[in-house]
Amino acid sequence: MQPTADASSNGPPSAFSGASPDASSGASLGAGADAEADVLVASLAERLTALTFAGRSADEVSQLMLDEIVAWGRDRGWRVYRRAASVAKLPPPMDKQHSYVDVAFARPDGRPVVIEVDHTDRRRTVDKLLEESAAGRVAIWVRWSSRAIAAPPDPVRLVAVPVTSNRGLHSRRPDLPVPSHSSTDLADAEQPDLF
Fold it and tell me: Is residue 22 within 8 Å of 136, Cβ to Cβ?
């Protein structure tokens, strides 16, 4: 499957042309790059925190997250690529081929951003994101789970999205209001003795 670019993309499907620093500069970008990554993570976390769903399969939850991440990037005017080629190669025997990242953004005013979305703690994903970061990209791992989510090693950034799980179905409804059961205002009503 080829990476798919946002409709606003005028170039070939490469999320990393233009504003990307060379690969040797990825590890030495410094505090400014850390601050930039932190701002992006906070913004994405805020966006994903507002996402609610109920009774969804793991694949459906991952797709909802990916759709929301794509919308987040488009809202910023970035060029969006789904399943963009990664700098990381696949493990043997397919080591002549490259892996893919779930979503990549080409930004006119900053380093490219790559994002992976996972339900489980996958070492291969961490390794891939570390390679992306070493190549000068902002690497973000969106993890969703009903269990504790461990932070990846620096400089990979984490957006943790807690969910509840029941019988293989997952829900996220953090701000669900208490339902209204009556139109009667009980604020001034007197409560009779029940016992």
Answer: yes
